[in-house]
Amino acid sequence: MVGSATARELLLVVAMAAVGLLLATAAAFTPWPVTPGGSAPSGLVDLHGPPDTPDPAGSTSG
User: Fold this and answer.
1) Is the pTM above the cut of 0.70?
2) Where is this region: Disordered (predicted)?
3) Is the separation of the CB atoms in 55 and 61 below 8 Å?
């Protein structure tokens, strides 16, 4: 009797973890709606290099 209750509880914990993982994946990869006049929609981070700027006056590089 104790074994079946333990197995049922373990199955419940694994099922809840799977549901949480699916919800987190859906929140990370689904596009967010764009609201007019609002901020930009959330999304994964884009990597950009630094802008091309000349060395400041008095620079000792090079």
Assistant:
1) no
2) 39-62
3) yes
